[in-house]
Design a protein that fits this description.
three-stranded antiparallel beta sheet; 45% helix; seven-stranded mixed beta sheet; 2 domains; alpha/beta; Aspartate Aminotransferase, domain 1; single chain; 13% strand; 370 residues
Length: 370
C-alpha cells in the first residue's frame, strides 16, 4: 500500500535528469536512506530499477571471475544470490538449511572460516519464508578472513532495524515497494568505506555498464556526469515516503510493525492456524501461517481476491501449497487492516470447510487491548 502523500508527490512536474532540483532530491534521499539503513555510509543511493537491480549491482560489483562467493542458503532469494554469483563467474559455495530455519552463529562462523571466500552473502529477511537472519556473527567471521558481506535487506528496510554499520554489512540493498511504502522502481543501496576501497581498487572491467557503482557514483555524486535517464517521479515518491518515515520515527515504526504482526499471529492461532516459523525467528512484515489440512491455498487466495480485493500469496519452491505468505508492512501495517484481514480469512476458511476454533478478530482485539 502507498500513502496518499506519496501519490501526490508523484504528480509534481518532471524535471530533467541533470536538473539541479533532481540532484537536490537525490541528496535528500541519500541522507534519509542512510538513517533508515542505520549507517553513516556516504555511498548510499537509490539505483534505477527494482530490488533485484540492487541485488545484481551489489553482487556484480564485488564478485569477479574466479573469486569465491559463500552463500548462506535457506530460501528462494538466497538461491537468486547464488545464481547471480555463478553468472559473474564466481565459485559459489553454499551452506544450506531447510527453508524456514536460521543459521546459528557457530554454523556461520565455521562455514566462513573453512571456505575463506572473497564475498559472503545472506538474506536478512527472507521473503519466501518469513524468517529473519541475524548477521553480526556472519560479518565478524567474514571480516576475519578478509571477505566482504552482501546483505539482502529487501523486506527489512523500514519494517525492522537493519543497523548495517553495527552489524558490519559492506553492501546492502533493498526495494521501495515493501517497507518504505513507495511504488516499485528504485533499489536503495549502501556501500561501506571498506567495500568502496575494494571497488575503487578493482582492476578488471565491470561486466555490467548499467550497474557499475563507480559510474553511478559519478552521476549522483559531485560531478553529476551523465549516466542514464533517472525515473524522476519515482525519486519524488521515494523522497516523500522516506519523509513520512522520518516524521513517524524509526523506533515507533518498528514498534508498529511488531505490534501488528503479533496481533495478527494471535488472531491466526486463535482460529487454529499454525505458524511456519518459530516465534524468535519471525519477521514482523511477512507472515507465513501453514495452510490447514483439507484446504488449498489457491482456494483461499481466490476467495479473498475475487470477493474482497485482498491479495495474499502462497508458498513456492519446497513451500508450495504449504504456507500462505501475507505481507503486513509499511503503510499497510495498521490495526484496521489486521482486523479486516482476519475477518475475511475466517470467512474464506469457513467457506472452504475449515471451521475456525475461535474468533481471530476477537483474539487480535484482546491483544491490542492488553
Amino acid at each position: 500500500m502507498v500513502e496518499p502523500r506519496v501519490y501526490a508527490a508523484m504528480a509534481q512536474p518532471i524535471v530533467g535528469h541533470l536538473d539541479p532540483y533532481f540532484f537536490q532530491i537525490s541528496e535528500e534521499i541519500r541522507g534519509l536512506l542512510a538513517t533508515a539503513f542505520g549507517t553513516s555510509n556516504q555511498f548510499t543511493m537509490a539505483i534505477s530499477g527494482t530490488g533485484s537491480a540492487g541485488m545484481e549491482a551489489c553482487v556484480s560489483n564485488f564478485v569477479e571471475d574466479g573469486s569465491k562467493m559463500a552463500v548462506l542458503a535457506n530460501g528462494f532469494f538466497c538461491d537468486r544470490l547464488s545464481e547471480l554469483g555463478r553468472r559473474q563467474g564466481a565459485n559459489v559455495v553454499r551452506l544450506e538449511k531447510p527453508w524456514g530455519e536460521v543459521f546459528s552463529d557457530g554454523e556461520a562462523r565455521d562455514f566462513i572460516k573453512r571456505e575463506k571466500p572473497n564475498v559472503v552473502a545472506y538474506v536478512m529477511a527472507e521473503t519466501s519464508t518469513g524468517v529473519k537472519q541475524p548477521g553480526k556473527a556472519i560479518c565478524e567471521a567474514a571480516h576475519e578472513v578478509g571477505a566482504l558481506v552482501v546483505a539482502d535487506c529487501v523486506t527489512a528496510l523500514g519494517t525492522m532495524p537493519c543497523n548495517i554499520d553495527e552489524t558490519g554489512i559492506d553492501a546492502a540493498y533493498s526495494c521501495t515497494q515493501k517497507g518504505l511504502g513507495a511504488p516499485p522502481g528504485l533499489a536503495p543501496v549502501s556501500i561501506s568505506p571498506r567495500a568502496l576501497e575494494t571497488l575503487r581498487g578493482r582492476t578488471t572491467s565491470h561486466k555490467s555498464w548499467y550497474f557499475d557503482l563507480k559510474l553511478l557514483d559519478e552521476y549522483y555524486g559531485s560531478s553529476h556526469r551523465y549516466h542514464h535517464t533517472a525515473p524522476i517521479s519515482m525519486f519524488y515518491a521515494l523522497r516523500e515516503a522516506l519523509e513520512i518515515i522520518r516524521e513517524e520515527g524509526l523506533p515507533a515504526r518498528f514498534a508498529r510493525h511488531e505490534r501488528n504482526h503479533k496481533a495478527f499471529v494471535a488472531g491466526l492461532e486463535a482460529m487454529g492456524l499454525r505458524m511456519f516459523v518459530a516465534p524468535e525467528h519471525r519477521m514482523w512484515a511477512l507472515n507465513t501461517p501453514c495452510v490447514p489440512e483439507g484446504v488449498t491455498d489457491l482456494a483461499i487466495r481466490k476467495r479473498l481476491m475475487e470477493g474482497d480485493g485482498i491479495e495474499i500469496l502462497g508458498g513456492f519452491g519446497p513451500l508450495a501449497g504449504k504456507v500462505f505468505r501475507i505481507g503486513i508492512m509499511g503503510a499497510g501495517s495498521r490495526e484496521e487492516n489486521v482486523l479486516l484481514l482476519l475477518d475475511r480469512m475466517e470467512s474464506a476458511l469457513r467457506a472452504e470447510g475449515f471451521p475456525p476454533r475461535s474468533s481471530g478478530v476477537e483474539a487480535a482485539r484482546a491483544f491490542y487491548s492488553a
